[in-house]
């Protein structure tokens, strides 16, 4: 396989990522958009958890971003506020592929955040108000009591909480990986200069 033939073909990493995700949606039994998101705490200690990637933006010119949503007061939200850099891996066992991303992070608090929040199930929207994410909880019953309280207060059309919204990861590095026989995997790393989202991507094959 020469550079970017077959499943690696293309000149836009965001379009390629969209294609791989679409293929995974047909084969993965649960949450094909799940990513293992890594941040760092104030001591520089890495922290990682699974979240759901909600959008792969592509502008068709090699520019785009990866977007997820969360509580800004959660551990990851506070860590990203202090150190706005992140990495994630998206792995699909059924396809034997993965995508790794590293980049800088900014908040998504505009119309897209409003639109996504409004698209969620009512109980999920109320849950965003009720959960003090990442902080100690006395019991599950206490959580459910708070859900009921917020549901009664907010009604059938709760607004988006001011502490809840999106994060956009603007990558400086994207790696596409596919399993190979005898662990001779195929890996292509796309890189561009930090701080210059308009920079041209450079693609390099890596040893397995």
UniProtKB/TrEMBL annotation:
Pfam families: PNP_phzG_C, PNPOx_N. Its cofactor is FMN. Keywords: Flavoprotein, FMN, Oxidoreductase, Pyridoxine biosynthesis. Its EC number is 1.4.3.5. The keyword Oxidoreductase applies. Binds 1 FMN per subunit. InterPro entries: Pyridox_Oxase, Pyridox_Oxase_CS, Pyridox_Oxase_N, Pyridoxamine_oxidase_dimer_C, Split_barrel_FMN-bd. GO terms for molecular function: FMN binding; pyridoxamine phosphate oxidase activity. It catalyses: pyridoxamine 5'-phosphate + O2 + H2O = pyridoxal 5'-phosphate + H2O2 + NH4(+); pyridoxine 5'-phosphate + O2 = pyridoxal 5'-phosphate + H2O2. It comes from the Bacteria. It is an enzyme of class 1 (oxidoreductase). One of its GO terms (biological process) is pyridoxine biosynthetic process. Substrate binds at residues 54, 116, 120, 124, 183-185. Pathway: Cofactor metabolism; pyridoxal 5'-phosphate salvage; pyridoxal 5'-phosphate from pyridoxamine 5'-phosphate: step 1/1; Cofactor metabolism; pyridoxal 5'-phosphate salvage; pyridoxal 5'-phosphate from pyridoxine 5'-phosphate: step 1/1. Residues 26-148 form the Pyridoxamine 5'-phosphate oxidase N-terminal domain. FMN binds at residues 49-54, 69-70, 76, 98, 133-134, 177, 187. Residues 164-208 form the Pyridoxine 5'-phosphate oxidase dimerisation C-terminal domain. Catalyzes the oxidation of either pyridoxine 5'-phosphate (PNP) or pyridoxamine 5'-phosphate (PMP) into pyridoxal 5'-phosphate (PLP). Homodimer. Belongs to the pyridoxamine 5'-phosphate oxidase family. This is Pyridoxine/pyridoxamine 5'-phosphate oxidase. It comes from Paracoccus jeotgali.
């Amino acid at each position: 396989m020469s550079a970017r033939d077959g499943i690696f073909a293309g000149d836009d990493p965001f379009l390629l990522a969209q294609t791989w995700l679409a293929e995974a949606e047909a084969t993965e039994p649960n949450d094909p958009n799940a990513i293992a998101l890594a941040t760092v705490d104030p001591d520089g200690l890495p922290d990682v958890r699974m979240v759901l990637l909600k959008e792969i933006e592509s502008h068709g010119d090699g520019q785009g971003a990866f977007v997820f949503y969360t509580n800004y007061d959660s551990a990851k939200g506070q860590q990203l506020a202090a150190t706005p850099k992140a990495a994630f891996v998206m792995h699909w066992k059924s396809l034997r592929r993965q995508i790794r991303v590293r980049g800088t992070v900014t908040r998504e608090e505009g119309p897209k955040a409003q639109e996504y929040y409004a698209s969620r199930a009512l109980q999920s929207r109320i849950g965003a108000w009720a959960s003090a994410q990442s902080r100690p909880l006395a019991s599950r019953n206490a959580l459910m009591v708070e859900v009921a309280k917020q549901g009664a207060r907010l009604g059938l059309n709760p607004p988006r909480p001011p502490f809840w919204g999106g994060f956009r990861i603007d990558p400086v590095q994207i790696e596409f990986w596919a399993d190979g026989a005898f662990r001779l995997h195929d890996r292509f790393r796309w890189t561009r200069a930090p701080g210059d989202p308009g920079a041209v991507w450079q693609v390099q094959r890596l040893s397995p």
